[in-house]
Amino acid sequence: MRVLALLDGTLADPDAPLIRVDDLGLVRGDGVFETILVVDGEPRELGPHLDRLARSAAMLDLPEPDRAAFERVVGLVLDTWAGDSEMALKLVYTRGVEGGDGTPTGFALGMGISPKVMAQRAEGIAAVTLDRGVEPGLADRAPWLLLGAKSLSYAVNMAALREAERRGAAEVVFTTSSGSVLEGPTSTLILARGRRLTTPPSELGILPGTTQAALFRAAAREGWTTEVAPIDVADLYSADGVLLVSSVRKITRVHTLDGKALPDSADLHAELAALYESEY
Ligand code: PLP
């Protein structure tokens, strides 16, 4: 089941051709997107997702997304959805057609959640560390690299996931060349030690995660310490738990890193997953 709504407020057939061949989102990855989890008709963290869409668009010098129009198409997809209780809702916003009048292309696409993601939520994942080739300070020094923007240019992230598969793993922990932890290709990393949760700073040029923020809110309410601080790869091996979190995968535990088993974090994962759910 898929539902597609265009930014002008009309429904469209997701199986029919729609995007022009000269759309800059298609030919250059020149655009931004968000993926939102919807549970029982309720989008999670819709406000923070729309904030981040606007922030990413500003980083790419795109026209400011029409928030009310995006809210309307989200509503339209939700009202039309007749699939499972959970939906992944993708918002896409591109620079529009090359040489056109500058009107952006925008749409919202509701999709089911893949069985693979469902299994990873329950069973955890093996991950490998891969060098992202960035250093602290680069995001500020070279804003044209768009580090920390959720742009449509995810080919590098997808290539990293294929490299993980070649190495017998399902996920990636990106690192700086000097061994500082960044994020996953489509997820935020959180380290748990005692009753403390740590995530790397977005100033490193990574995406500020809405799921991480929600979990930190819930954890802080229950007396956990939450902090944003640099993490070294070596810290991952001595942690009580290493989590990769994102809207659709929710809270997922890493059980194996670079082929080495991490300490069993099944109970910790269950506690944190329940904490996250308590936000909704
Ligand atoms: N980091 C990157 C690079 C991502 O693409 C994503 C989401 O897809 C995340 C982190 C997690 O963000 P969120 O929790 O808001 O889904």
From TrEMBL:
Its EC number is 4.1.3.38. InterPro entries: Aminotrans_IV (IPR001544), Aminotransferase-like (IPR036038), BCAT-like_C (IPR043132), BCAT-like_N (IPR043131), Class-IV_PLP-Dep_Aminotrnsfr (IPR050571). Gene3D superfamilies: 3.30.470.10, D-amino Acid Aminotransferase, subunit A, domain 2. It is an enzyme of class 4 (lyase). It comes from the Bacteria. The keyword Lyase applies. It holds the Pfam family Aminotran_4. One of its GO terms (molecular function) is 4-amino-4-deoxychorismate lyase activity. Keywords: Lyase. The keyword Lyase applies. PANTHER family: AMINO-ACID AMINOTRANSFERASE (PTHR42743), AMINODEOXYCHORISMATE LYASE (PTHR42743:SF11). Belongs to the class-IV pyridoxal-phosphate-dependent aminotransferase family. This is Aminodeoxychorismate lyase.
